[in-house]
Amino acid sequence: MLETLRHIVQEVNTASGLNDALQIIVRRVRDAMGTQVCSVYLLESNTGRYVLRATQGLNQDQVGVASLNAGDGLVGLVADREEPVNLESAEYHPSFQLLEGLGEEPFHAFLGVPIIHQRDVLGVLVVQQAERRRFDESEEAFLVTLSAQLAGVIAHAQVTGAVEMGALTGAGPAKISGVPGAPGVAIGTAVVVSPGADLYAVPQRQAQDRRKELQAFRDALGKVQRDIKQVAHNLGTQLSPEDHALFDVYLSILDDSTLGREVASLIREGEWAQGALSRVMIEHIRHFERMEHSYLQERAVDVKDLGTRVLAYLQEADHEERVYPDKTILVGEELVASSLGEIPREKLVGLISVRGSGNSHVAILARAMGVPTVMGAVDLPYARLEDHELIIDGYNGTVHLNPEPEVKRRFEEILAADDALSKDLESLRDEPCITIDGKRMPLWVNTGLMADVTRSLEQGAEGVGLYRTEVPFLLRDGFPTEEEQRQIYRSQLEAFAPRPVTMRTLDIGGDKALPYFPIEEDNPFLGWRGIRVTLDHPEIFLAQVRAMIKANEGLWNLRIMLPMVSNVAELVEALDLIHRSHRELVQDGLQGRLPPVGVMVEVPAAVYQARSLARRVDFLSVGSNDLTQYLLAVDRNNARVADLYHSLHPAVLRALNEVAEAARAEGVPIGICGELAGDPAGAVLLLAMGYDVLSMNATSLPRVKKALLNVRVDESRDLLGEVMGMDHAGDIHARLDGFLTEHGMEKFIHNPVA
Ligand code: PEP
Ligand code: MG
Predict the structure, then answer these.
(1) pLDDT value, residue 163
(2) Which residues line ligand 1 (CB under 6 A)?
(3) Which of 271, 319, 333, 589 has the highest count of CB atoms within 10 angstroms of its CB?
């Protein structure tokens, strides 16, 4: 059963559109369950009715015609109850309704299951049979499992349908929900980032120059043929003649007269080479997969492998030629930090990632760069969006396709208002951040890219509270040498001197894998991450610390910070290594004392041991992004649980408050470098808790400054007292919004187009 299920889902996944997907479902489910009827009814959002969209066994001319309201008939009952209905004789059930002309009369047994996606009922999947019998438990379980798996595919295909209709007719606006990644609005043109060579994720595009595409395809094909011949040659006598024959089969699949001809003819019709290749290959793969004989089924794997190789060469050639439109919105299945490095900054206006959430590192970088971003847009048919005009609403985490003119106008207004606000805030650049009653709050920035430096200085940063050293590591093909690192760190330190720069030692693992140092784990956020990796590889840690200390010479503005510390032993060990590096460098003639060393509080264990940690270091800095993830047990990278990730959860606020108290008790300065520091209302609470420094992304800095200039410490403490008594994050949010409004800062409540 499992195998059948997997095959059906796989096949549906390769469907060319919603109708194709539904056809596959009804045909394959009817065959797999041996029933006489299988039908799918889908909810039509404008009428609220469940419409028959595909059937095997009932009258085809009723497809698109027969429909029921929620609660009406057995289909409506399934939808209404959101659970399966399994009946021996459907016609005796009080909800039964005979639909004229559908041809249901001969069928008595009925099993209907709801199709539910993200809590919404999308439709109902039904099987029927003439024999009067109850479907047994295993059949019911099969249909329920299948429906749960197909729900996402159907939701995806529905949006895809809207995109295609829009492209063809100019109609069909669609709004896709994701989660906010970086605030702001963008209107621009989609450029799809290919996720490596994946035949199933090739963006659809028209060929700009058919002759060139044809040539590119022939070149790529030639290269793969050459590679295969080379492999066969290298293996030489190790292979039997039969094995060699297999290579001949591969070469014949790639032959110009078979596969090559089909791809070329699609290119001549106007498709670009990658799209044509993917269509032809998927068709062939499906063909082999459907074959009865297991030997032939296995050939599907070979065909896929060959197609993928050709695709990789095509992508390589395309990459070199890429020209980005002026207002590019990068769209990809899983954008990562390095995706941002490839496009000129002035052309990039927005980002959309199908996977990941607002706390993924790519989103944090996007915030630092001020690029509106939507993450976790799981239903976005991203591969079909190339060249589409899109609107990104980074405040609410939504993407608008083919928007109505009225909607577009509203977004243009928001864009203009945002620009005006930024200009307004520019005047604050050189003003210190002092509350109405005279409390000074240093505002620092988080950096990673070199581009952040200018931006941070423009925004009036007084220091760097977190330099994510892994970012330059992520953008390379191999570990930088000690000397390369020294130069990178030197330029950071120089750019900000005499302001302090807090460099965090390498924090890889979790969602930050170096391409040249892969870490594959089932539970990466609870695994080999941050200090755990570098203590296991002292050579990496020592080289990094030495590079930092050398870069500091003469500037003396370096601070070193340790990530992901979860026990005192790790801290002691890391401090030993730092002292040793410093000692050795001094022996070699370096001047200057040890830079201040601090530790991040970003796992719950560190909250409870904050005093023990504080005693051993020069400063503490709370990493509220990870602390929130670990306290609430919510993967910061998972869009499915993004609505549970509350940085203002009462438990998080309590932890932040306790850490501040612990640091005070030990007389050690306490800072914060998580995203909460960049939230104007969050900053007011941190002021009240007694945080000594707030470090945030450069884009947020002027807003936070404006907020703190508008408050008094005593009223911030009253506010903190109030919210600490609340049980729900939602209530805390509402109270903070109220506070901002009372202080004339409603423009910082960012929900302009709910
Ligand atoms: C944090 O966890 O809050 C933090 C600042 O570190 P990062 O976001 O890089 O994990
Ligand atoms: Mg962290």
Answers:
(1) 56
(2) 364, 466, 468, 507, 602, 623-626, 673-674
(3) 271
